[in-house]
What we know:
- The protein is 23% helix and 26% strand.
- The protein is α/β, with parallel strands linked by helices.
- It has an 8-stranded mixed sheet, with helices on both faces. Strands 3-4-1-8 form a 4-stranded mixed sheet, with no helix packed on it.
- The protein starts with 6 loop residues before the first strand and ends with a helix.
Amino acid sequence: MSNRNLLSLELTTPVDDERPVYLSGNFCEWNPDVSDFEMKRVSKGKYKFTFAPEVALPEKIEYKYTRGGWDFVELDTYGNAPSNRVIDKLVGNYADFVPYWRHDGSTAFIKKLMPKVQVVSEKFEIPQLNKTRKIYILLPHDYDQNLDKRYPVLYMQDAQNLFGKGSNYGNWEIDKRLSLLTKKELGDVIIVAIEHGEEERFNEYSPYTVEKKGKGLGMKYANFIVRNLKPYIDANYRTKTERQFTGIGGSSMGGLISIYAGLMYPEVIGRLMVLSPALWVSPKIYFDAIEFFNPMDTKIYLYGGGKEGSAMIPNVKKMKESIESQGWDAEKIQIKLSTDPKGEHNEKRWGQEFPKAIEWLFY
């Protein structure tokens, strides 16, 4: 049998190092480093593999590329693990491209494009709650070089879980993901990250009083972001201050307070990143959505996962329908609904959604 009748794969990747590249798939029980499926390096960043005629292949091949383990698997342009590649013709040449690779279980990143992380204040005053909170700011890597440039801003909840080493709950790795977005010219966004209040988190992020949980302080917290924090950030950093360049975002309870703040202050906030929101806290959130009045353009990115409880995806769909039911022009109120039947309620999954939301909200 000639090579023309065999199945061949050609891989190109800009990440060129000494690690070998392997094929893993349903033809080798998904083992990530079988020597029989190591690709041949033909030149810098280029690899090739031809299946031997004696290899018994399934009718439809599913596969991925690895650097020798699942901690070193291929990643897409967002830094996420892509879906399995599929081939249903067992002859011919196929060309693939891998932009990034996972490294020791971490998402990919580009060191020179990483945002500059600074502490705005160790104890920023929240007069509405008579408390203080640590607040960070993530500035584009070249912020100090482009002194005439201004940037949109996204105010995010749960700073402890967003970047750096993360917390015991996990890590969105938004600093690494922003470096990949910058490579795509989609990373010119300032992130203001507000630490949550530990045991006071639920009450501060809840706009509603919940039996057994206590009084909801979310209205005061949202007021703090709009009336105190945003004016300070605008005065001290080069921001685009208009509402269409001002966003708020978070997950779970942080997602709930983010959509609430957007509903209550549409004249200030025009971009909402709402991931796995805790809409179960109170049905009043849907009535607030129906009261939502906004003659200006607003974009809302809603996400829910199928493994976050049976109500999550129905709830985010209901929220979308509640807002759209007011009959606003589709160009004025744009809602992107993203769902994942396998999506779990954790920081890793929200980190995977983060770059997609940034791209849709601001670009």
